[in-house]
Amino acid sequence: MGGIIDLTDGSKHEVLTTTGSSGLLGDTYLDGDPLESYLQGDEQPKYALRNKKSGLQIEAGDEMRSLEPDDDYQTLAMVTDLRILFVAGQSGGDRMLAVDLSEVVEARVGSGRFRTSTLTVETLADEIWAFPCRGDPSPVATYIEEAAQIWANAGRLLDELEEALTEARGALDDGNHDVADDQIASGEETIKTARNRIAELGTAARNRIDERAETLWRQLVDIEREVRAAGAAREHARAQDNWRVDDYETAAAAYDLAIEGYEKALVIDGSNPTDSALTARLRGARNEREILKVAPLVDADSKRRHAHAVADPEEAAKEWGQAHEGYRELLGIDWPSAERGFVADRELIREQTVEIVDDAISDHMEAGRRWLESGDKLAVQERAHQSEQVYERAKHQYEQAHQLARELRPGQVDAIEAGIDATSSRLDGEVPTDRVPDNPISYDPTEPVDNEAETSPEVDATEHDGIEGLDFHNSSASDSEPMPGTHSTASESHSRRSASSPARDERSETSVLDSIQAQKRTDGQPFGGDDEGVPATDASPADEQDTDAVPSDGTSAPDDRTATDSEAAPSAEPAETLEQQLASLDRKQLADLVAAVWQAEGWMTTVFTGASDTVYDVVAIKNEPDRRQLIWADTGGGDIPGTQFKQCAATLESSQADSAVVVTATAPSSAAKHRAENHDLTLVGAPAFGEQVRQSGLQSRLVEMAEGESPQA
User: Fold this and answer.
1) What is the three-class DSSP state of 6?
2) Are residues 474 and 569 in the same domain?
3) Is residue 193 one of the residues assigned to a domain?
4) I need a labelling partner for 242 at 20 to 30 A (CA). Which of 120, 143, 566, 613 fits?
């Protein structure tokens, strides 16, 4: 047998399986077990070398040590995919030394005497291992060099990853999520590359590096999960911040990133955050994004209704301007896909936008007329400086109306310009001196004055509203029209309202919020009045000119959804007591109670009813199965006008909700049930809703609301 044996063919060579060669002149290699007994697991032998007496010489600086066989034995070397083993046969027990291939720096071959060569291996510990043998060990040295390079490359990759993970953990602890993300960005690819490289050597080599790679992998996925969750939480917060400032499109994009981040974090097999925590965050982001789909419509409609609740025309005109801007923004929103599109009926929004402009123009003109009349009163009292200031305000109101009309309502420009001309002439000095004109717009200073006409009463000269010596809230009670700044019944020209905006009712001098809450308690209409301008309480089947008409016999059509509304559920207490309590609630209280009942039945709810009316009062969401409901709370009479049901149906159709529900605080009329049926809406009257309250265990909460106490959540 030669001094170098190639074992790469996988055959069981004699040098591996025996302790000596066969034949009469055979050599004895080892005293104990054969060479293959030193192999571990899937370790694969590649080459074997032997010498008889030279053994192994190890040089470490100035120190020399050796591994030599006893007489009649030899020294064997075996190169595997993991290491280089040297075994010296010795009586009473062979000796073995080994060096891992990952510790090898260089392998080379040196020539010796008598056809011998020396395989020399240098290690990271600055040791030189020299093994003389017969023949040419160059193929062995080449394999050792290549294997060492593979081990070094794979080890370097894992070392770099380990360092990156340490830095990523530190960055994550410091809140620098972007830095942490950069550090782990290529971690998975690094581990994959290291494993693939080492697999070239064999199964044992791959298994050995897998132990370290698995440890680093666990660290990687833990950090990656935390980074993805933290990034998603950051986008979630950014979405909420942009929603607060009505930047809906940016908010929607941020919600998408947050949802994507939470989903990625969940599929990463890390331990922190927990699956339950991430699932809850993901559910919250998805639900908020669903609500965001309707938020632009809710917010814009809230501004419109807030403007309608203001009695003073000048203040109302400002509110109409904000409402108009909100609706223009609503029409301009262009989200990139139907899934992220906002919920709205564009045609209805366009109609309401025009109606808002009409209301704004009307209020500006009414405010201008009132200021003009107030200026005339001051002029008659020879208070020129004050009247000039008031005329300036009148002109400003007409100019605001003129700007809107010129852009959107050219048919009203002439009437507005008449007001501008009237204020301009006053500012040019053509003011009344003897009496206040009956019509300040058509006042002609050249007309003769009726000296017997009643003169205008004086205006209180206290300081108010930035105009020295004038208090519009303390005008004489004999004035036919209050001046701008007071709360009163609007004039005839101001009382025109759109189909979706009920006529403004009388209000005393109270805050806007008080006025809104008073309106909720008195009319209870989710959408205001009906299309024909008839108050909800006056509506009757005979007034309906559409498909909402009841049958000629006056009975309502049967409806599985509303059949229970007319039947009071059995209860230990008189049914009328609970229904009276429901009837005493205002709209906000009813909406809160509806939300509580739906939550008790497993829904997630969001209440929109607040300081101003909104498109609907409650959004209810259930994930399993995926369902969405829009809910309106109605505290008015039981005869709900058909126009309200129309708008409910229009909102449902333009939304991604599955159903719409109208909950009433009183028993609904037969006509209301029929209208709900015609529009495919669920109508829940006080009897049926009262039973839901009972079954949900919320009677005490209803009592607290009815008695004016703050209910415990």
Assistant:
1) strand
2) no
3) no
4) 613
Maximum Cα interatomic distance, the chain, rounded to a whole number of Å:
158
Strands 63-67, 56-60: parallel, antiparallel or unpaired by DSSP? Answer: antiparallel
* Per-residue confidence (pLDDT) for residue 675, from 0 to 100: 87
Q: What is the pLDDT of residues 127-153, one digit of tens each?
A: 999 999 888 899 999 999 999 999 988
C-beta contacts of 206-212 below 8 A and 24+ residues apart: 207/41, 207/42, 208/82, 209/154, 209/155, 209/158, 212/158
Token pair, residue 312, equals 């003073």
Taking the mean position of all CA atoms in its chain, how far away is CA 493? Answer: 45
Half-sphere exposure of 610 (CA within 13 A, CB side): 10
Residue 698 placed within a domain: yes
Radius of gyration of the chain (CA): 45
Q: Of 351, 361, 273, which is closest to residue 317 (Cα–Cα)?
A: 361
Distance (Å, whole) CA 390 – CA 440:
13
Distance CA 118, CA 133 (A): 6
More confident call, 219 vs 376 = 376
CA dihedral 516, 522, 524, 530 (to 10 degrees): -100
User: In this structure, what CATH number is given to the domain that contains residue 45?
Assistant: 2.30.29.30
Q: How far apart are CA 706 and CA 96, in angstroms?
A: 92
Tokens 């229970």 — which residue? Answer: 564
Question: Can you give 317-379 as a three-state secondary structure string?
Answer: HHHHHHHHHHHHHHHHCCCCCCCCCCCCCHHHHHHHHHHHHHHHHHHHHHHHHHHHHHHHHHH
Residues 684 and 664: their CA atoms lie apart, in Å, by 6
Q: Which domain holds residue 650?
A: 559-706
Closest CA to 320 of 300, 298, 297, 335: 300
Cis peptide before 273 (omega within 30 of 0): yes
Which pTM value belongs to this model? 0.48
How many Cβ atoms are within 10 Å of 92's Cβ, its own excluded?
7
Q: Token pair 């993970």 is at which residue?
A: 165
Cα separation of 373 and 367, whole Å? Answer: 10
Please, which pLDDT band fits residue 96 given cuts at 50, 70 and 90? very high
3 state SS for 569-613: CCCCCCHHHHHHHHHCCCHHHHHHHHHHHHHHCCCEEEECCCCCC
Extended strands (E) in 35-148: 45-51, 56-60, 63-67, 75-80, 83-88, 95-100, 104-111, 116-123, 127-134
Cis peptide before 551 (omega within 30 of 0): no
Alpha-carbon distance 138 to 141, whole Å?
5
Phi, psi of 460 (to 5 degrees): -55, 135
Residue 143 DSSP one-character state: H
| Overall domain count for the chain | 3
CA 553 to chain centre: 52
Q: Tell me how far apart the alpha carbons of residues 630 and 653 are, in angstroms, rounded to a whole number.
A: 11
Distance (Å, whole) CA 219 – CA 267: 16
Do residues 88 and 32 lie in contact, with contact meaning Cβ atoms separated by under 8 Å?
no
Q: How far is CA 443 from the centre of its chain?
A: 59
